[in-house]
Amino acid sequence: MPNKIYRTVAVLATAVFIGGLPVTAGAKKFAGEFMALGGGARALGMGGAFAAVADDASALYWNPAGISGFEKRQALFMHSETFGDMLNYNFAAFVSPTSAFVSAEREASFGVALVHLGVNDILITKDLPFEERNGIPGFQGGEDRLIYDVDALPREGSNDFALFGAFALKTGYGRLGGTLKVIYSDQVAGYSATGIGVDIGYLRRDLLTDGFDVGVKIQDLTGTYIGWSTGLVEFIAPSVKLGVAYRVAAPTLNASFVVAADGDFFFEDRRRASQFWVEQVSADLHIGGEIIFQEKVMVRGGLDSGNYTAGAGLRIGIVGLDYAYLHFTDDYFEGSHRVSALVDF
Hints:
This protein is mainly β.
């Protein structure tokens, strides 16, 4: 038991050390932020506290080590609308166990996932002349009217994509996984960008006692570069996600409970853009829980960086349906609805 604890602590300490290396010095804050929206209504209904839970296909996003140990193939698709229908976000994942290249005892799996963020009806104003009226620069022509007919202006959409490919297996130290990410951004007015990055994950089940799990994901391990068609280069700094989860079975109620907490740690001077910060280090906290009745009905709730979340799920045979709602504490923003479906086969 002591060796198991020491090994886990060493992994967690290494994760924090790597995340804080000086490679973050040239980072563009919030570059590639569309990949931070998460995947799977189940995890999002739990406030995004899923790094140590990581037991469905959405683990490919939250902690790639979690896809190790799958006994069946699983596919998952999620659609989300935020701020009304202003932002459309989609997440799809597929995970399959494999014995290729490794023995069956390694409980290896591979998976692929696709993240998409789309924004429609963006006004294109780059070809409009700059004008100034009544001392107000820009396009406003007075208190109650516009110089230009907005309905006549051209509109375009922007789309961001990230393709993930992951592999994970079981070792004597816990489960390990890695993800290769390919990023493509197609923006308005003909601008585009491409990038590539790597995430790694670690997961230890039943660390100190049955049901206590620890997970960690180092995101953008070596830093991720995104090159734009304009010549601009953005750099995503490494960050660390640490999570714990505790599972309790209640046989007399034919139910089980999961409580989880994650901390996302950044090293690029985000300051007030995060919940907590000290100098260049900042953090966001995710707390969530799930009650499972008869392995068929689920009720969830949580806090996602201070915003309330709630959700529910239903399992019918090999099919699962999940819903999650995110309520922003800032009343200026409408809530976010997430719906996902998964199937085992």
